[in-house]
């Protein structure tokens, strides 16, 4: 396999081999459609074991719908959801919450430190909202775990936020598109990172971490799940051949595949960060706690990497020059090392002077 | 492989081997996410060739979303869609059109003959609606092709309806969840069955006919596609690893796989029908033009089949006793023959009492 | 005052003098806005007395919003409402239920006899819907009282329907845009016509019967009212100077104004009907139980009335030639007599040819 | 009339006598319902004259629906609207834009100076939004005129904002709940304050300034009005006796009543401000350019006013202690003087010492 140059997103990768095998294995024979199959029925128990508690699990195809369904459920009959300024559900899902709730949900951004909302800010926001009797009433908070800037809420931080939320009659949603990376980082159990810290419902991500296309909405507070079945169906996420989603999710949580993949991706991001640290002029935008690095590179390094065919996504205002270097379950150490070597090469005037840049670029 | 006893739906089958192979093949290497991959980009051209005209193609995960997106687009800013009384989009998608349109779309059933709406009935309905100035204004008609009762609109019938619709400023949608089966039956080109007959936008089905989970919204009238990109994204059907949907659709239309699968399924349904014809007391509910048979069986036959582990879905009011026997791309002649033999056995008192089941089955 | 020639609708009239006086009287002094005024606070008690039970009352500006709010509340989180084929909420409010519910409500028409739905048809519809697991689930029935064809449900008929509904876990809404006319006709108490017969929530109409612009949503089942306050506000029907709506409603139910107005309008419609009965060729479309007459007139009569400046609204398909002759609280006997005299004149060829129009008109 | 002590809102007043007279005058005779009356038809021409250009005018009952309809129209098929942080449409209408648009509209707050958005901030926000391809796309800006903090955009400021908006393909909405107060303050023509400065559509307020319940949506860009008729009807703001709304609006703009009322209210607020200026410890929150004063009073003054029965609304976080003193068209100089005298009395230690505070407090 050629060296990986696409660090644009953890979504540029395909599916993990274990996931593909599970899909192929699930293909044999006939099953009841629409989730009446053995894989889907087994999933409830498998997730209950994973999370050490009774749960209701609903597979869906994308993270946007997982978050949108949660927003619709948590704000009914209508209300607002506090999010971080950078929250994916707020700024990167084309207004999914408004859509999925039929105009009943609004996302309200709170200030963040290292991508994380603080309980005190939540408390203050709810208090101020209480003084505006004709505003959309707050109903929930949504925490992105891991955050959009590669940081992780500790269980204590989640607990503080959840207590502040519950004390004010707000539900707690966790957008766990990178829940695996967060748990891998924290070294705690999935239960400790979620319901034991007060999370009511979790968007459990798999696609960014090796699934082909599968996410799950996991209700710890099962009374909230009452309407999800219908909402999912009309939204087109009750797949007729649901076994193929369930099989992906089952393989994902079997033998710790999800954590192994996440640990590896996290480690690769650390390797990127450590390598870049030694380049003068590199400014990191945030801590690197999970599988990607937010960083502003010296212009020469950036130009060089692009010239060599590397790709990244941008973050923040264009003037800031911050990029995201995303590692995935299939990023290899040699891929990272090649990236770092290229960066170092362009960072060092002598090296650039000694060796002519190949004309072909 | 054991004999197939699950005739509940064409969705009880898994994916066709060619589809699975395409998924596995698409797994290699990194790609741009969200449809920026080579498979997705190629798809536009492949569908243009298939339909012999420029089109815009949008892969989605389920038929419900394909129909919902079309309903939202066609009724904007708001309006009603004429459908058949039995239309899947009306009665089997949990109110998908209302949901996808944010409350702007209403489905209005028209009477049918053999599952098909007639142009004269459409014309009359529009005229009457015109007299109700405060009713939801009609904006479109949605034809299910093949219909929910196993019949097929001929191109001439579609053309008549489309002309009646267009003359009254209504758009024409075709819910082609079984478009393949219809084209296979008609023996015409995909173009003749769709845009040449006046269809503006098509929900092109693949899942019921061998895909794992993939449908496509195909715009022949490309001005209608303007908002689809955003609507699909907020609805959670812009898959990050879109290549896996596009690869399925590409394999589906390559080397006529879609038509080969459909022809086979149609033939199996004919085999079922012919076999049942010879059982006294069997009443067919509608013609069998595509891949399933709607039929009321004598009680003894029904009881026997259920006792032997066969499953079917019911249709119409429970008192009518009508079932649907659905064949799929992977239904084998021997599966049908086993079904028929069982039916015949229970239909004939002497056979049940005296004779062992023939070994050949 | 000149003779009334406008029988198009009971809405062509202005407001009753008692209503205008109440508005003028309410103008003095400052009040808390948004319903914190004395009129609005008093209204709860006044309606409780009128209906002989505790209620929650929410004034709104139009019947469409009263019905829309009820539809949104009764179908939440989503579902369908059975209505009559002719129901105003279904065909004359531009899709209000879909709008007010954010796409969660669908109206499903049932067959009617004399404009009324029968309990047996409701029961059958619910049963059939139960067999369609992916259809929009039924949640309520909405009865128009008086109906769109000038008939009235008896309390026994309402009770039968309500029992059929409640036994199937459906709510019962009454669209009482002409509730006053119905109660006047029935000679029963408002309680007997509503909650004692099983009605959960009532759109209590006033505008068609003498108010300037005021309707009320009256919750007998007060647990249903939980979200109405917010829904009304975002929908723009929490009027800042709410006292002017409440004052209208208070005057409307004071000293039986609502019933006196309704009785009068009903009597005027009877007078119209009796007068028309004597014209050969006149066909009545339905019984005349409240304040309007549905009738097909001989062409000469119709032409003559139009030529003389009379106006009516049409009903049904244009080919049927049915018109509605609507009487209001302010229709005078001499207005009716002038209408009848004109009709008779044009009905009789000799009269038209030979005799001058009688001076008495 | 007793002295006015209710300065909570300009909505605590009743209707101006000219408005009530117009309502009473409009009551005579029958008219076509639903806006087919002479008052409503005349309104188009009257507003065209007022604004010196062709317009389309749609009367509605409240400001929330005027703004909601505009939001729905301007964001279709979906998108975001920039507003000020304090915008009524954002924080005081229970999510009206989301509701009226069926989940298609989002309000996005921009920073303000003295309640006003600056063109440079708008430009920057649009630029940043352009970098977020999966965010809700910006479609419009909504300016509140006069603002929520008693300031006024000059025509030049509006023009700058409108040019910045139009250059980026955004529409310009003006929430003119207090448009009259703004025009009165500016001394310009209504045209100069609206379409000549680039406004596409205006929520023209009347209720806060003397109407009973009437606002108008005024389209200068008439192509935007295409869907308003249906949207208004399904939203329950096509009043059947529309003449009563139109008559209010006609009286409002006849003989400059709207400007006379607004000038008076503005002057009363100036009188309040000037009187308070002389009290030590009084902090004004913003300039007082229209009919209300935002101010933090010394605790003793606040306590005294409350004890004497005065009422005001609070603004901002409770800890700030800011109140709004709102004057209306019917606030008399003696009302203001009594308020000021009371404030001064409680502000002066000697006075308080001389006279014992009544025990009841």
Structural notes for this entry:
- The structure is a homotetramer of 361-residue chains.
- Chain A is α/β, with parallel strands linked by helices and 361 residues long.
- Helices cover 42% and strands 15% of the residues of chain A.
- The first copy, chain A, has 15 helices and 11 strands.
- Chain A has helices spanning 17-25, 38-51, 63-75, 88-91, 96-100, 119-130, 155-167, 179-186, 190-193, 228-234, 243-253, 257-277, 299-307, 333-347, 349-354; strands at residues 56-60, 79-84, 105-110, 138-144, 171-176, 201-205, 215-219, 283-284, 292-296, 313-315, 322-326.
- In chain A, strands 1-7-6-5-4-2-3 form a 7-stranded mixed β-sheet, with helices on both faces.
- In chain A, helix 2 runs parallel beside helix 11 (243-253) and helix 6 (119-130) packs parallel to helix 7 (155-167).
- The model of chain A is unreliable at 352-361 (pLDDT under 50).
- Chains in contact: A-B, A-C, A-D, B-C, B-D, C-D.
- At the A-B interface, helix 1, helix 3, helix 5, helix 10 and helix 11 of A face helix 1, helix 3, helix 5, helix 10 and helix 11 of B.
Total DSSP helices of chain A:
15
State the oligomer. homotetramer
**What separation lies between the terminal Cα atoms of chain A?**
22 Å
Largest sheet of chain A: 7 strands, mixed
Low-confidence sequence ranges of chain A: 352-361
E-strand count of chain A = 11
Based on Cα principal axes, name the global outline of chain A: globular
Given the helix and strand composition of chain A, which structural class is it? alpha/beta
DSSP helix fraction of chain A: 40-55%
- Spatially, the strands of the biggest sheet of chain A line up as 1-7-6-5-4-2-3
| Average pLDDT figure of chain A | 94
Largest interface: A-B, 56 and 57 residues
Q: Approximately how much beta-strand content do the residues of chain A carry?
A: 15-25%
Computed CA radius of gyration of chain A, to the nearest angstrom: 21 Å
Instruction: Sketch the topology of chain A as an H/E string, one letter per element.
Output: HHEHEHHEHEHEHHEEHHHEEHEEHH
